[in-house]
Design brief:
The complex is a heterodimer. Chain A is mainly β. Chain A folds into two domains: about 100 residues, Glutaredoxin, CATH 3.40.30; about 140 residues, Thiol:disulfide interchange protein DsbD, N-terminal domain (Immunoglobulin-like). Chain A is about 15% helix and about 40% strand. In chain A, strands 5, 6, 7, 9, 12 and 15 form a six-stranded mixed beta sheet that branches. In chain A, strands 8-18-16-11 form a four-stranded mixed beta sheet, with no helix packed on it. In chain A, strands 13-14-10-17 form a four-stranded antiparallel beta sheet, with no helix packed on it. In chain A, about 35% of the residues are buried. The radius of gyration of chain B is 23 Å and the shape is flat. Chain B has one domain. Chain B is about 25% helix and about 15% strand. Chain B contains one helix and three strands; from the N terminus they run αβββ. Chain B is of the alpha+beta class. In chain B, β1 and β2 form a beta hairpin. In chain B, strands 1-2 form a two-stranded antiparallel sheet. The chains are: A mainly beta, B alpha+beta. Chains A and B meet through β1, α3, β2, α4 and β3 of A and β3 of B.
Chain lengths: ~270, ~80
């Protein structure tokens, strides 16, 4: 489980972590030993809690004695009062958002090594939420952007200037999902008497991507050890007097590829 | 009168293939509506952990809350 590797990040964010399945205690004990899992794995044998949560997978027939009782796989974030603050459920079990990606999208901190990018008028540091990914893994690319003193860049949707945009080069096996840009601030440019949406303080772009989980993509990526994602960051920086030339900065990230986790207990 | 239209037959077969595939990939369940929604309070529980020790939701909370992961099985 990827969860164990992120336990420190989760705890640093003040959160407890627990995983629940319908497996009997000895199965969980064996699983925890094989995977060196230290956080609680709870045994909901009989699936009463799974049912109480309304998560019993209704697509499995009760006659399927091996699989009946499994939940729809998903993740809840709750506060101290046990209220759901956020939830992630996938449409297919092979698809999954990594916990690191969830944490980043919720604005939480993550202890990951970041790379500095040289970009005129900006300080850009970037990282991927996960170093190793498999078919079906949903993860995120993060860019922390700090405009130079008195400089601003234009927010997505702005016309008349080059708004900031991260464009990921398409490639087989890589799915580009939505991007999160923070709320911009209104900038009043007196000489032209215009209002524009800009970023002038440090801000974070979170671009969600995924490794295609289809069998075709899995087969195509089978012998690859790494995947390099290439992108360009386009923007235009201005200060209160002049606007600099629009920039197009190439960025790339390399992640390790692993096959889908099909390790099963020894029989 | 029925006439054989290869394009139409092809289109029908393609549609069938897509629907079979969709059926295999995702059950006809809207994953956004299963389980407690955002803002609701989740039910408490007492369940044994991998060491056989009984745990409650309250005992698993960190200072700011908790993450609960429901997964299919550790066995298959």
């Amino acid at each position: 489980m990827e969860l164990q590797g992120r336990l420190k990040d989760i705890q640093r964010n003040g959160l407890g972590l627990v995983a629940i399945s319908y497996d009997p205690v000895p199965v969980l004990a064996d699983f925890a030993r094989r995977r060196s899992i230290t956080f609680p794995l709870l045994s909901d044998q009989g699936s009463n809690t799974i049912k109480a949560y309304g998560l019993l997978n209704a697509t499995v027939a009760p006659t399927n004695t091996m699989q009946y009782g499994i939940p729809y796989p998903g993740t809840f974030f709750v506060d101290r009062d046990a209220r759901v603050t956020s939830r992630v459920f996938e449409t297919a079990y092979q698809e999954r958002d990594t916990i690191s990606s969830m944490l980043v999208r919720l604005g939480r901190t993550l202890d990951v090594a970041a790379t500095k990018i040289s970009a005129p008028h900006l300080e850009v540091t970037t990282f991927t939420t996960d170093q190793t990914v498999a078919p079906g893994t949903h993860f995120s690319i993060v860019l922390d952007v700090k405009p130079a003193r008195r400089v601003h860049v234009y927010a997505p949707g702005v016309t008349g200037y080059r708004p900031i945009a991260l464009t990921i080069a398409p490639q087989p096996g890589l799915l580009v999902r939505e991007a999160q840009f923070p709320r911009p601030v209104d900038y009043y440019f007196k000489p032209l008497d215009e209002h524009v949406n800009v970023y002038s303080e440090p801000f974070r772009i979170v671009q969600d991507v995924a490794i295609d989980g289809t069998r075709e993509a899995e087969a195509a990526l089978k012998d690859r050890a790494t995947l390099t994602i290439q992108a360009t960051l386009d923007y235009q920086a201005c200060d209160d007097k002049i606007c600099f030339n629009p920039q197009s900065v190439p960025i790339s990230w390399t992640v390790n590829l692993k096959p889908l986790d099909r390790e099963r207990p020894p029989r | 009168m029925y006439t054989f239209d290869p394009m139409r037959t092809f289109a029908a077969l393609a549609l069938l293939a897509i629907s079979i595939r969709a059926g295999a990939q995702s059950p006809a369940v809207d994953m956004q509506t299963v389980g407690p929604p955002v803002g609701s309070k989740i039910p408490s529980f007492t369940l044994p952990d991998q060491n056989g020790q009984a745990r409650t939701l309250e005992s698993l909370m960190g200072p700011k809350g908790a993450i609960l992961v429901f997964f299919r099985s550790a066995d298959w």
